Structures are given as C-alpha cells and as structure tokens.
Amino acid sequence: MSVLYVPHLMLTTLSISILALIALNIVLKRPRHMSTATAALFLPLIASTLLATFYSGGKFTDGVYLSAKYLGDFNFLVDYVSGPIALTILGVSMVISIYAYPYMERKFEEEGEQISSNMKLFYILYYIFSISMYGSVISTNFAEFYLFLEVGLISSFILINNYGYGDRRKIALLYFVWTHIGAVLFLVGALAFGYYEGSLNVFGSGGNIVYTGELMQSVAKAVFALMLVGMLVKAAALGFHLWLPYAHAEAPTPISALLSPLLIGIGPYVIFRFLYPLFPAQFSDARLLLAVWGALTIVYGGLNALFEKDFKRFLAYSSISQMGYLIISVAAGNIYGFIGLILHYIAHAFGKAILFASAGSVIYHENGLRDMRQMGGMLKTLPMTGNTALLGFFTITGMPPTIGFWSELFIVRGVVEAFYGMGAEGLAIIALLFIGFSLSISYSFYRYKEVFQGPPKFGERKKEDPFIIGSLITLAILAIALFIVAPVYANDLTGYLNSLKALAGGA
C-alpha cells in the first residue's frame, strides 16, 4: 500500500509544465530568460518524481488517464526502478539547459542567425525532447511508450537538423532513419503483442505486470526478437551503431549531452523493464547472445575511442562502449546486474554530460577547436573545465569518489556470478568485460593528458563563462553526492528487484 497517493500527480505536473512553457515563450522577451525559465520548469517535475519514488512505499501509480479498446490503459509508474532514471533525465536536462544559453548564443552569432527567435525555438524543442524521455521511462503501456519515444525522436531530429554542425541535414536524416528503424521494429513487436493479448498494457493500475503469458511460443519468440533488436538499435549496439558517431558528434553540444547518455540508455532500460518480466523464457534463451553482444560493443567502442582524434566523436564512441556495459548488465539476469544497469545509467548520464559539456567549453573558448591533437595544457588555460572533465572521466571509468565506482562494482559481480560457471563462453565474456574496463581507463586518461596536461598551446588563462562553469561544477557535485547515496539506494532496490525477478519466474 502506498504511503502517498495523489491522483494524476505526474500527469498534472507534466501538463502544467508544458502550458507554462508555452506561456513563457509568449511573455518572455529576452533570450537569456528562456534559459532560467526552462530550467525552473524542471523543478516541479523533479519534486513530484522525488515524492512519488521515495514517499510512496517504492511504487507510485498515477492513475489511468486514457483508456481505449485494443490500446489499453495509459498510466504512469514511478518506482525504485523508473524513479531514479526519470530523476536523472530531469536533473541532467535542467543543468544542461543553463549551460546551453551562452553556447547557443555564440553559435547563433557566428552563423549570423537571429538570436531571440532561434533561442526560443531551441528551448521549446529542448524541453519537449527532455520530457519525452522522462515520459517514456515511466510509461506502463507499449503505445504510451512509443508515443513518447516518437516525440523524442522527432524533436531531437529537428534540433540536429536546425542547429547541428557540418552536413547537419544529411546527418539528421541518417539519425532519423536509423532511430526509426529501431522504433518501427519495436512497434511491430508491440502491435503483434497487442493483437494476441488484447491490449498493449504492460503494467496494470496497481503497478504489477498484467501479461497472462499465454502467447504461443513461436509468437512470443518473434515479438521478443523484434522488440529486442529495436532497442539494440536505439542503444547503438555493435552493428547498429553506424549513425551514432555522426549524430552525436555533429549535434549542438548541449543536445549531445542529452543524446549520448540519456536517450540511448533507454534501450537497455526497456529490455530490463519490459522484456525481462514479459518474456522470461525468451530472455533466458537470449542471455548468452546478449552478453556477447554487449561485451563486443564495449570493446569495439573502446578501441574506436582510443584512436579517434575529434573530441566529440571520441566521446560518441565512448558512449557506444558504455552502452555495452548496460547491455551486459541486463544479460547477467541477476540482481547485481540489474542494480549495475540502473546505477550505470545514472553514472554514465552525469559522467558523459560533464564530458560533452567540457568539450563544448573548449569549443566555446577556443573558437570551435575539436581536434585533440591541436590541444594541450588546457588545465592551465581552462582550469575549471579541466578539473571537472577529470571528474567526468573518473565517473565513466568507475573511479571513487563517483557513482561510477558502485555501478561498475555491481556490473562485475553480476557478470561474474552469471557467467563464471558457463565454460569457455562465460570466461570469454568476463575477459572481454575486463578488457573493456582497461580500454575505458586507457582512452579516458590518455585523452585527458593530451587535451589538458602539458604546456599550454593557447597562451594565458581564459575567463571561463560562468553559466558553463556553474553547470559543470553542479554536475560534478551531483556525481560525487551520488557516490554517497548509491549504496543506500542499492540496498532498498534489492528487495524490490527480488519481487520483479520472482514475477519473471527467476530467469
């Protein structure tokens, strides 16, 4: 029984925030005010999500707000699984919205664009993109999830198309096509599920799985495979990754800071949240293949990151590698792996947001420079950027005192426990995981040394923009604070995940 119940708390807060965004766009005249106003709009959502997660006995259902024949019921579920993921999306999006103003203002000035109208449109699309990710992770119905996913893909496509770099229109189209291949595969699987099951519901009004498990085995396999591949495309797993280095490198940097950690991480989250409890037998059959896929993704992304010279493409390849950790965590199929998945989503979100924001700081202060071979000594010229970037690398490589330490600890335990007794295949998976860790450490600190250490190549210390530095420091503080909070949360999460594992038949 929930301690807290406020009917339609999430829906009401979300609706009011969208209406407020429209009103502010009409009322506000100065572009700078759009930045602070957009950031402020995240606060009610953060507050309501915190309440729903931690003051509701660990499970808060918002109440059915739409019901239709064949589609089923639209509801929001905020619990110990979705709540922290949703809070991460909101928190990172809020901080980056502050960071974005000086960066985008400089970009509009350099391109001779009208600042006021472009800034307003940018922030409207930015907010829609952010809350679409938020809505997708608390959805309880396949159709509801797909609608939020589609809104996020379209808004991010427009952001890349309008405000990206290089051949941005071709890159935006590449992004649109690939992400929609994944989305359509998932949708076809969902529609097949709904056809045989009678609705697209995953969780009922009480927050429990409602699937009866009566799909024919052949149908269940096909539905599972379609949805799984769709989410692997979304996660840019090896073989489905071709679009990511282009899209994430050439997107405007504030959007890269959302795309790379937040959006693509939803793929592995959905595999765990929806597919694991709905299709335990099929999930169990696919675990070994999924683990190998994740391990190879880690190594492939790490090797490309090690040899990449462009700062943003380097971070994009790093994100491919980090998605491998999420995939292998799901494949472990045990409590430690699942905790590792959730914690590493959070760790990667903050770590990669710091690193993309640091890359953007270099681009902002050094007139668009992205080639790391031309950098060096920036710890002296951009000291706050350099120090926070170091913490970002600490976070994605699992170094204390950041949350990444705990996430990788749980991943290792989960993977070793799952695959150690499985013969040569299991040992190969574990070996690839540790090779991946070595690559992550190598590319992170090799590139940090190349960019930030040594004699400065660009003269004296520069005055770093306060909006940019303030955002970087905030993200860094949160990454450290989460290092303290993570063990407590993991302890509370264990019992909740045990109940989910029981629902899935102990797969």
From TrEMBL:
<dbReference type="GO" id="GO:0008137">
    <property type="term" value="F:NADH dehydrogenase (ubiquinone) activity"/>
</dbReference>
<dbReference type="Pfam" id="PF00361">
    <property type="entry name" value="Proton_antipo_M"/>
</dbReference>
<feature type="transmembrane region" description="Helical">
    <location>
        <begin position="256"/>
        <end position="276"/>
    </location>
</feature>
<dbReference type="GO" id="GO:0005886">
    <property type="term" value="C:plasma membrane"/>
</dbReference>
<feature type="transmembrane region" description="Helical">
    <location>
        <begin position="385"/>
        <end position="406"/>
    </location>
</feature>
<feature type="domain" description="NADH:quinone oxidoreductase/Mrp antiporter transmembrane">
    <location>
        <begin position="139"/>
        <end position="418"/>
    </location>
</feature>
<feature type="transmembrane region" description="Helical">
    <location>
        <begin position="426"/>
        <end position="446"/>
    </location>
</feature>
<feature type="transmembrane region" description="Helical">
    <location>
        <begin position="145"/>
        <end position="165"/>
    </location>
</feature>
<dbReference type="InterPro" id="IPR050586">
    <property type="entry name" value="CPA3_Na-H_Antiporter_D"/>
</dbReference>
<dbReference type="InterPro" id="IPR001750">
    <property type="entry name" value="ND/Mrp_TM"/>
</dbReference>
<dbReference type="GO" id="GO:0042773">
    <property type="term" value="P:ATP synthesis coupled electron transport"/>
</dbReference>
<feature type="transmembrane region" description="Helical">
    <location>
        <begin position="314"/>
        <end position="339"/>
    </location>
</feature>
<keyword id="KW-0812">Transmembrane</keyword>
<feature type="transmembrane region" description="Helical">
    <location>
        <begin position="39"/>
        <end position="57"/>
    </location>
</feature>
<feature type="transmembrane region" description="Helical">
    <location>
        <begin position="467"/>
        <end position="490"/>
    </location>
</feature>
<feature type="transmembrane region" description="Helical">
    <location>
        <begin position="222"/>
        <end position="244"/>
    </location>
</feature>
<protein>
    <submittedName>
        <fullName>NADH dehydrogenase</fullName>
    </submittedName>
</protein>
<feature type="transmembrane region" description="Helical">
    <location>
        <begin position="77"/>
        <end position="101"/>
    </location>
</feature>
<feature type="transmembrane region" description="Helical">
    <location>
        <begin position="345"/>
        <end position="364"/>
    </location>
</feature>
<dbReference type="InterPro" id="IPR003918">
    <property type="entry name" value="NADH_UbQ_OxRdtase"/>
</dbReference>
<keyword id="KW-1003">Cell membrane</keyword>
<feature type="transmembrane region" description="Helical">
    <location>
        <begin position="288"/>
        <end position="307"/>
    </location>
</feature>
<feature type="transmembrane region" description="Helical">
    <location>
        <begin position="121"/>
        <end position="139"/>
    </location>
</feature>
<feature type="transmembrane region" description="Helical">
    <location>
        <begin position="6"/>
        <end position="27"/>
    </location>
</feature>
<keyword id="KW-0472">Membrane</keyword>
<keyword id="KW-1133">Transmembrane helix</keyword>
<feature type="transmembrane region" description="Helical">
    <location>
        <begin position="172"/>
        <end position="196"/>
    </location>
</feature>
